[in-house]
Amino acid sequence: MRSRTPVDLAGRCPRCYLPTRLCLCAEVPRLETCTEFLVIRHNKEKEKSTNTARMAALALSRCQVLTYGAPGERFDDSVLEAPDTWLLFPDGQTPGPKAPPVRRLVVLDGSWGQARRMLQRVPALRRLPGLALPPPPPHTRRLRRPPNPEGMSTLEAMAGAVALLEGEELARRLYALHELMIDRVLASRGRLGEPWE
Predict the structure, then answer these.
(1) Which helix (H) or strand (E) holds 118?
(2) Rounded to 10 degrees, what is the CA torsion of 55, 60, 61, 65?
């Protein structure tokens, strides 16, 4: 797969996984949020250079990434038990004035099919209240073709959640990071300006 990085990370930054000459670590903002983010990343996403959850974890001080589906490892769903934990997912809702606060947000990171399977296989995820986002603007740039026009990368979805819960100012910096990542990944492939792989 094209976005998978070499096992030894030869010629790549060990933090952002981009080629060393295009490393964007120095340009990643460090953002303090009130909301805590827990990203559950599918094991098959872990080594992809196009994985945007990696960028979110570098930018957000209150972001933890856990792996799901590693061979021989059972996922410990007790990490989902904190109070006021919500799941960021399209089937959710926009919290109303009487809804419990969103203090912690679980984000599923993987392809659309992987995210759906994680939701089906981890019953504790289905018990969480769901937070939905408005769809992205049409013609939004992408690294990967979404299965539907409302699909978003993990970093985009997290930026949308930050906008909804904590305001546009913080979210703008995450959206800008997403754009920069797209530029760097496409430049690494000699395809700057193309919309997706």
Answers:
(1) helix 112-121
(2) -60
| Domain ranges within the chain, ordered by starting residue | 20-188
pLDDT range class, residue 76, cuts 50, 70, 90: very high
Give me the amino acid identity at 168. E
Rounded CA gap, 123 and 132, in Å?
19
- 19-181-144-104 Cα dihedral, nearest 10 degrees: 120
In the structure, what pLDDT confidence band is assigned to residue 195 with cuts at 50, 70 and 90?
Answer: very low
Structure confidence at residue 193 (pLDDT)? 52
Each residue of 129-146: b (16+ CB within 10 Å) or e? ebbbbeebeeebbbbeeb
Domain 20-188 -> CATH class: alpha beta
Q: pLDDT digit string (tens) for 42-55? A: 999 998 888 999 99
